[in-house]
Amino acid sequence: MNKTETLELLQQIKDGSVSPEEALNRLTLAPFTQVGDYATLDMHRELRQGQKEVIYGEGKTKEQILGIVKAMRKEGWQNILITRLSPQKADYLKQYTALFYDDLSRIGIAAKTELPQVGNITIVTAGTSDLPAAKEAYYTACALGNRTTLISDVGVAGIHRLLNHLPKLQKANVIIAAAGMEGALASAVGGLVDCPVIALPTSVGYGASFQGLAALLAMLNSCASGVSVVNIDNGFGAGYLAGMINQAIEKGHPAD
What are 153-187's pLDDT values in tens digits? Predict the structure, then answer.
């Protein structure tokens, strides 16, 4: 149950078409739905947090993922986000449900529909090799209703490439900076803009990068103010957080 449905229920109580007892029954039954013996869907998450549950695909069987998707579709949910979905599992799901799938980010979106896109999130990557995590952030943000732009391969090894996009960066509500190696991109971006910057360390780099640990520590020690950091390769977390910040900002703006 989302906020719109809850408001409709309250209005029905007010106009007498639904009794308080019936409304209480709906609210009591709605909080969660059991799916087989392997999942319990949180039906009130959208009401509390503004976004429905997201399916983490890694570690689940293809049958379990399909069962969860079917249960969500039964509730009328669309744009069901599935992260860390392997190509094999995606091929299986496509036999039973409409599915958008991006191989690079391993993001799947079941029952994908066009959503109103609000605000302005910009994602920048230091290199092309950072795109898997960056595109995970991109599709996450888009699926949650955020207007999102991706700019790739503008790292500090050629800082002029980043500066060429400065006008776009300065118009963003929030920026995600994805980088491996020494992770310097986040500090560079943070020193150029007046909006929050979410640093996304990636596991890209040679031996002493320690699978992204060097970038993570560098980003945590950024000298630029207003930079926060998510975990290594956590594009979903970066995209989700950016979406929350972006939509909170847009709530304070009058409609265009």
Answer: 999 999 999 999 999 999 999 999 999 999 999 99
Q: Judge whether 178 and 126 are in contact, CB under 8 Å.
A: yes
Whether 62 and 136 map to the same domain: the answer is: no
Phi/psi of residue 167, nearest 5 degrees: -55, -40
For residues 116 and 97, give the distance between their C-alpha atoms in angstroms, rounded to a whole number: 23
- Write the burial class of residue 57 (CB in 10 Å: 0-12 exposed, 13-18 middle, 19+ buried): buried
Q: Which residue in the block uniquely carries the two structure tokens 């958008």?
A: 100
Q: 153 and 48: one domain?
A: no
With pLDDT > 90 as the criterion, what percentage of the chain qualifies? 70
Domain that holds residue 216: 118-251
Centroid of chain to Cα 145: 10
Torsion of CA 61, 64, 66, 67, to 10 degrees: 170
Which residues pair with residue 34 across a beta bridge?
40
